């Protein structure tokens, strides 16, 4: 008898989060260390040839990537839970492998410390990303003003100190835009430069202050961080330090939105309430109260939700990194809201996914016009970027029925065990394997 081979169906699977909506939350959530602070500070460890010991590091895919990038350029790392010991005594000129750098824009932050410490470096351009083109011209112009020769060849930024000089030279630098990354690059490079560097129109984010505190703990001379003029007096050498990372204000704001949308009383610890000022102000406009119970603890007290307008701006304005989560909340807040994104040109992709869940949102340019609906309905949705994925989880918590959030690689970049933390508060969600329909 003739045997005919039947093709075996190969079933590919993907990990998704399944949320059963409308459970109420209660209790306290522990906020992890700030991803964006940790990434810049990890790059900053290159400035020092002695050991640096960091603590309160979040367990995130982005942090793992940064560890791999540092290891690829010769840095020795020992990680134990939230602690990381970094020995950058034998760091090389690079370049770090492009396949790693292309996955993490923050990897470009190594350029300032490498150049300042070694006098030359090669760093691949980080490439585009889902939320916009994100150029690095302000980083490059800052380094050039400090005496670096910078040219881009085959997608790699080659930077060296002009005239075979040993140190960068302090300079007066005005940033056309208060870029967080450019401020960090210039600040780190200036710590070991000769003379004084002044950064005007500097970014004022708490992560800049954390980076400056870290550099100061190694002996750097920096003042004015947290204001729009930062002054750095270069020193010859930095020394070993022990440094704890600040709590993540974006993770904290995400949980505040989760409490508000489920009408639940939840506490957050540890936080720096000042870092949450714009989020707290907007929550109060929307309805919920935020009580500051202790210098490092806040509590969300639920109230009816009403619409408001939000425009993203550099700190202390409302953060672009909280925009998507607040949009999920406004989607079920009574009345009309307008959310305007001014920081990144392509950061409203979550609108289409929220619409699939029944949100009434119209997009016009960089503004989303929202008419609150009484409830959302669960649906399969796809994460488009990191904060958008958190917004979809928040929407799923409030929606009727089941929401399946796909594209978890985004979520895992920036939220440490989000489902474990939400489950502990009483949310009904699980991470499951699901067949991919090809
Ligand atoms: C950081 C944060 C990111 C946050 C953003 C704004 C990290 C790892 N990431 O990103 O989560 O959303 O700040 O708060 O800390 N720009 C230029 N030229 C440059 C640099 C930036 O035109 O050389 C533009 C960008 O395209 C963007 C704007 O400036 O439109 C803000 O970017 P920037 O503040 O630099 O953000 P990042 O440091 O990339």
Question: Can you offer a commentary on this structure?
Answer:
The structure is a single chain. The protein is α+β, with helices and mostly antiparallel strands and 438 residues long. The protein folds into two domains: 13-32 and 247-435, Enolpyruvate transferase domain (UDP-n-acetylglucosamine1-carboxyvinyl-transferase, Chain), CATH 3.65.10; 35-244, UDP-n-acetylglucosamine1-carboxyvinyl-transferase, Chain (Alpha-beta prism). Helix content is 30%, strand content 26%. It has 14 helices and 23 strands. It has helices at 35-44, 61-72, 98-101, 111-118, 137-145, 180-191, 206-217, 249-261, 277-286, 323-331, 350-356, 386-398, 408-414, 418-424; strands at 13-20, 26-30, 51-55, 76-80, 83-87, 120-124, 148-153, 156-161, 172-174, 196-200, 221-223, 229-233, 241-244, 265-269, 289-294, 297-301, 310-311, 336-340, 360-364, 367-371, 380-382, 402-406, 428-435. Strand 7 (148-153) and strand 8 form a beta hairpin. Mean pLDDT is 93; it is low at 1-9. The protein binds uridine-diphosphate-N-acetylglucosamine (UD1).
Which properties best describe this structure?
438 residues; alpha+beta; UDP-n-acetylglucosamine1-carboxyvinyl-transferase, Chain; 2 domains; four-stranded mixed sheet; 23 strands
